[in-house]
Amino acid sequence: MKSNVYLIAAVCLLLPCLSWGQCAPPSPSCSGCSPLTADNQNLSSGTYCISTTVSNINILPGAVVCISAPGSIVNGNLSGGTLIYNGGTLTNFNANSGDLRIQGALTNTASTGLNGARVIVENGGSLSKTDLDVNWSLVVDGGTVDISNLFRINGNGSVCLSNTGQIHTQYLQNNSTNGTTAQSTKGCISISNPQGQTNLNNILTNTSNVFVCLPGSFTPSNLGSATTATNCTNCTTALPVTYAYFRAQPLQKGVQLEWQTTNELRHSHFIVERSINAIDFQSVSGPVIDPFGTRNDTKVYRYIDGEVSQGTFYYRLKQVDTDGSFAYSKLVAVNLGDQNAAVRLFPNPVVDQLQIRFDTEEMGIVDVELSDLSGKEWLSQSGNKTEKSHMQQLNVQSLPKGFYLVTIRLGNQYFIRKLLK
């Protein structure tokens, strides 16, 4: 897990964009999933969790499979269904069709093909490979793709960027006529060697929402309408605003929003927007201009929404440029209400072993993150909740003494607890 409050991104793949205005539909939920432990399965319906080793798994249309560490799939096929990758290993796995949604860190995997499915790298997720050929669809929705050698978009391939998703590669080749696009939430492609094997046979993009970061003054031909940044070291310096974090914390009354920027170019102001369904948003603030504090060129902003009580609320930032153009941040969600009975931490203060007890009806993957009050992540853990009463243990013996925030996600439920070490 990557931040104190989990970011929920509603993510359009093929033009024109669909009604949610992003690159792909929202991710299915892993809540209520059934543990999958048996080999030799053809899955055509239902939602399943994998946290152990299974082999010969075929994921057909209608099935959703969620894998988290230490789970492993050996000899598997994605054949029209959905695989949500939070962690674990894939060996001899072929994504032939359907959706592969990457929410964890997926690195070079043994004999694994990604050439037929729609690959969606979501917020907090990363895909790292030596070479990557895009033959159908790649969506980078707030996540990161790192290619150490050649990134190539082939004839039927398409790339869509949103929520400031980033692609880093040494060489880029574009043979696709579908083009690369980005939503108003923008995205960036960083090319460390724009000469060499870089070759754009077709126009890369028709939108200025695609930012291209180049290390020197050389600019490849056929970038199209891309916004180019020369003498650029990475995508962080190419995008108008780069967020270090954006999080929401329940207060005794209302919600405190806090975000930190590490880069602001052509930036005018922010507007805080709120939703009860992650689709329909309304503005709850005027222009937020002045940061709460500035240190080493990083700026911290805070806004308190005191007009909410019980329920789950979704927030995003509308970042407005000096020319009036704007982009949306990732989403954060927060749950307000009496959560004390649902999730308990003990002992608190803690010395070495922290027990986390859940008493909720919802089943599925439980993600736990422990961070200090500055936002630095110290520990994270995932577990599979299969019964109403569920216990997880976190080893905190090596942590320095002090105050911490424990953030817990279970499906669409979010819990935040204070902890003293």
Structure description:
The protein is mostly beta strands and 421 residues long. It has three domains: 34-229, no CATH class; 242-336, Immunoglobulins (Immunoglobulin-like, Sandwich); 343-420, Sandwich (Immunoglobulin-like). The protein has one helix spanning 235-238; strands at residues 34-35, 41-43, 46-50, 53-59, 63-67, 72-85, 89-102, 105-106, 118-121, 126-134, 137-141, 144-153, 158-162, 165-174, 180-182, 187-191, 199-200, 210-213, 227-229, 241-250, 255-264, 267-275, 282-283, 293-295, 298-305, 311-321, 326-328, 332-336, 343-346, 353-359, 364-372, 377-385, 389-395, 403-410, 413-420. The strands form six sheets. Strands 1, 2, 3, 4, 5, 6, 7, 9, 11, 13 and 15 form an eleven-stranded parallel sheet that branches. Strands 8, 10, 12, 14, 16, 17, 18 and 19 form an eight-stranded parallel sheet that branches. A hairpin with a 2-residue loop joins strand 24 and strand 25. The radius of gyration is 21 Å and the shape is globular. The chain starts with 33 loop residues before the first strand and ends with a strand. The model is unreliable at 1-21 (pLDDT under 50).
